[in-house]
């Protein structure tokens, strides 16, 4: 039995751009003296982690010496570390609420209260759908949380210390994912150099990047509902959404709704929503299209690793336009948004 009458796979992200402002690319090493002290015992385990292996203890919170960093639009305030799947789920719920709040009131009325369900599968995916009863929901997988956490942690490390951990991560993990459907997309233990692992500025920046990527991701998914692509988001009273167990099955078994014009429309609307919501966050870190560009870069790498394959193991890639084609569109949308919203 299908729970979902319509599933639009991942919408993810498209995004745009601007990944690297001059301040991002130019200041890293000078502002981030390498810390030589080792991480706390057990923080970066050297043995392969068990399933669900996110470290459960946050890193130390003592402020580092020297001025607060300012990279890539990072806020001056240090954010607490985002550690563990439950904390990431809560973060995404908070991001979704900000996205809804930033929508025009008539649009908000269609989607406010849509349940967000997390599915335990490790495939990297997110989607919008309708339950059999006709109620809308949004969903993300554990694999999405793991992957975006890895993207955020490696990108933050690279910005601050001039490393290439994102390349190392994607070169290592993505081929494993292609070969083995049980391979986790999360950050492997030991990939972040130990001397950087506990730096609270790195954790803070990673949390910002995590939010940027998720804002685009769920901005896109939310758009599938309010643009009418799913046909079930009409401002009705919302239920709790499907159970994660049922959703897990659906995430891997259902044929995605192949409708590439709708994907493009959701990319544009989702990017605008993330930019609008980001602007409202000031003086906190303002989301931009950068999150979408990071996500699309990740899927571009996955696409390259898979090659041309109509039976691609990635539902996201089977159901969406080539990420390389989506990037310019999202960038164009963001450029237009900036011209209309200076400042
Ligand atoms: Zn989509």
Poorly predicted parts = 1-72, 252-258
Multimeric status of the protein: single chain
Sheet with the most strands: spatial strand order: 1-3-4-2
Structural class by secondary-structure content: mainly alpha
String of helices and strands: EHHHHEEEHHHHHHHHH
Portion of residues in helices?
40-55%
Bound molecules: zinc ion
Number of alpha- plus pi-helical segments: 13
Strand content: 5-15%
* Largest β sheet strand count, sense and barrel closure: 4 strands, mixed
Give the end-to-end Cα distance, rounded to a whole number of Å. 51 Å
| Integer average pLDDT | 79
Tell me the radius of gyration: 19 Å
The total number of structural domains is: 1
Number of DSSP strand runs? 4
Globally, the shape reads globular
